[in-house]
Amino acid sequence: MNRFYSSILNPLYEGVNLDDLCVATYLIGAARDEDPIVKAASIGIEQTTGSWTDVPEETDEIRLNYASKIIGIYEVPDYENETNIRESVSENGTRFYIVRIGYPVANIDDNIPLLFATITGNITSMPYLRILDIDFPKSFVSKFKGPKFGIQGIRDILGVKERPLLNNMIKPCTGYTPDVGAKLFYEAAVGGVDIIKDDELIGGDRKFNKLEERVEKNMAAAVKADKIKGEKTLYAVNITDEVSRLKEDAMKVINAGANCIMVDTFCVGLSALRALAEDPKINVPILSHCCFGASWTISQYQGISSVVLTKLTRMCGADTMLLEAPYGKFDITVSKYIKNLIACTGKFYDLKPSLPFMGGGVIPGLVPRIMEDAGNDCMLGVGAGIHGHPMGPAAGARAFRQAIDGHMKGMSLKEIAKNHEELRAAIEKWGIYGEDDVKGLYAI
Fold this sequence. Notes:
The chain is of the alpha/beta class. The chain folds into two domains: 3-141, Alpha-Beta Plaits, CATH 3.30.70.150; 150-438, Alpha-Beta Barrel (TIM Barrel). Helices cover 39% and strands 17% of the residues. The strands form two sheets. An eight-stranded parallel barrel has the order 5-6-7-8-9-11-12-13, surrounded by eight helices. Strands 2-3-1-4-10 form a five-stranded mixed sheet. Helix 7 (178-190) packs parallel to helix 8 (211-229). It is globular and about 80 Å long. This is RuBisCO large subunit C-terminal-like domain-containing protein. Residues 22-140 form the Ribulose bisphosphate carboxylase large subunit ferrodoxin-like N-terminal domain.
């Protein structure tokens, strides 16, 4: 019997305990006459107990407990007849399969690097192999604490019960002094921004902008603005750094008065995010930026779906995370964007939901579209749409608050703009999504 046809490696779905398995769903391409069962089992064996040939100590007992389990192979389209295959697929053509492979939790436990080594590992060097999703059992997820604060915790800190939150990232992205940053911070905060963050490009200490000085001056600006607007402002200070310095940077900014921290998650690694989130001394919300993550997700035939990264980011403790919206600078599909929203906010065993915030060229003319997709439990991530407003950053922030508040009352942007010059100026400059060529605003 061909060893790859063994029922130990290819059990029925009904014959496995799913709570013992992390189940990866792959898109896999194969040559026309390649055996998909052998290919799937070879992939699973490569990533668990075996290799390209049998070895003496890889016993049936070892395979039963620690080898992968192929629990689904589905060709698209679903051929049953060889004649149809030869009529539809050329001799050198490719056939595509959805393959579901279960990996024993015992092989991984709660080790994120080992999760990637197991489910991606050596096989990512193959052409036509993409991870579409990973089903995480409760036995695996229960070892992760997830967000400390999540949506409700952030709302409680800010005292905002229902409306979407407004985020601003200081622009220019980098190269400015703490004094310049504090000036821009104050103007955005006093205009009504809830959470102001550093850009992803100004992490840690910079010679021109020292970390503690940046925190002290921006927090002073927050206090000043909060007294005027009667609302609280969080400052998500970017501590992205070498992993060996992350904890030190986190404590440095918290001791300097920071009330939120930010990290470029895929630059430092998911395990680094988790270490920050699960540290009891780090008692402020964590904002996760998604930069570099798209390098894993962009190919339709290789890499990994952004939905998997969103689920892992939530598991590893992001209280709020940046999602690229499909309506601004970037072109993620709408359906994948919606799936990522659900991955942030849907029930995920006992983990708190993460607050999704949408960035990438967000303007007031996009507010209704984003709120219709996400509801009120979201945050608008705005950079140049505030700092590039023709009347200045404070007016830019007010324009967004006007758009948010008016849309919650069922008003159109044009109706709101009749009595609000800040929103009217933003619409005149950048337009309204669905009515104007918003995509034409962006050069990337």
